[in-house]
Amino acid sequence: MKNITDSFVSLGHWPSAGSFGFNTDILATNLINLSVVLGVLIFFGKGVLSDLLDNRKQRILNTIRNSEELREGAIERLEKARARLQKVEMEADQFRVNGYSEIEREKLNFINSTSKTLEQLENYKNETIHFEQQRAINQVRQRIFQQALQGALGTLSSCLNNELHLRTISANIGMLGALKEITD
């Protein structure tokens, strides 16, 4: 501490003009040098420094302004995307509802057409059974008639002479022809 005060005291005391020498007191010379350098920097560098700071301030403000614009654009795009999402969700719900109603409608149509087809098949089956019954009845009738005819012919041929026999055959053939026309 004594060196510092000595250096300030020595500032007030200048050596004589005729002598030139080096001041070896580091603290005293550094303070003087620093104050001179700072004074020169402040005097000449004030404009440059203020220009640098103003440029930096403008860049920061421009960056903030650009960020705000980008933020507003992003918010706007987000709102548009949300609106589109809501619209798509509504359309999807509508398609889902329409799809379910379409499925129910198709299901009912399928059930109705299947029941109609089953009804038609039942009718065809009944008609086929009725037709086969009629055919079987007709076959039985023909067989019975043939057997009865053969039995009658056998009885007649043993009882009748040739002339009576021929007339009976002709009459029976006529009756068979009439029966055939009726069954056809």
UniProtKB/TrEMBL annotation:
<keyword id="KW-0472">Membrane</keyword>
<keyword id="KW-0375">Hydrogen ion transport</keyword>
<keyword id="KW-0175">Coiled coil</keyword>
<keyword id="KW-0066">ATP synthesis</keyword>
<dbReference type="GO" id="GO:0045259">
    <property type="term" value="C:proton-transporting ATP synthase complex"/>
</dbReference>
<dbReference type="InterPro" id="IPR002146">
    <property type="entry name" value="ATP_synth_b/b'su_bac/chlpt"/>
</dbReference>
<keyword id="KW-0138">CF(0)</keyword>
<keyword id="KW-0150">Chloroplast</keyword>
<dbReference type="GO" id="GO:0009535">
    <property type="term" value="C:chloroplast thylakoid membrane"/>
</dbReference>
<dbReference type="Pfam" id="PF00430">
    <property type="entry name" value="ATP-synt_B"/>
</dbReference>
<keyword id="KW-0812">Transmembrane</keyword>
<keyword id="KW-1133">Transmembrane helix</keyword>
<comment type="similarity">
    <text>Belongs to the ATPase B chain family.</text>
</comment>
<protein>
    <recommendedName>
        <fullName>ATP synthase subunit b, chloroplastic</fullName>
    </recommendedName>
</protein>
<feature type="coiled-coil region">
    <location>
        <begin position="64"/>
        <end position="98"/>
    </location>
</feature>
<comment type="subunit">
    <text>F-type ATPases have 2 components, F(1) - the catalytic core - and F(0) - the membrane proton channel. F(1) has five subunits: alpha(3), beta(3), gamma(1), delta(1), epsilon(1). F(0) has four main subunits: a(1), b(1), b'(1) and c(10-14). The alpha and beta chains form an alternating ring which encloses part of the gamma chain. F(1) is attached to F(0) by a central stalk formed by the gamma and epsilon chains, while a peripheral stalk is formed by the delta, b and b' chains.</text>
</comment>
<keyword id="KW-0793">Thylakoid</keyword>
<keyword id="KW-0934">Plastid</keyword>
<feature type="transmembrane region" description="Helical">
    <location>
        <begin position="26"/>
        <end position="49"/>
    </location>
</feature>
<keyword id="KW-0406">Ion transport</keyword>
<dbReference type="GO" id="GO:0046933">
    <property type="term" value="F:proton-transporting ATP synthase activity, rotational mechanism"/>
</dbReference>
<comment type="function">
    <text>Component of the F(0) channel, it forms part of the peripheral stalk, linking F(1) to F(0).</text>
</comment>
<keyword id="KW-0813">Transport</keyword>
<comment type="function">
    <text>F(1)F(0) ATP synthase produces ATP from ADP in the presence of a proton or sodium gradient. F-type ATPases consist of two structural domains, F(1) containing the extramembraneous catalytic core and F(0) containing the membrane proton channel, linked together by a central stalk and a peripheral stalk. During catalysis, ATP synthesis in the catalytic domain of F(1) is coupled via a rotary mechanism of the central stalk subunits to proton translocation.</text>
</comment>
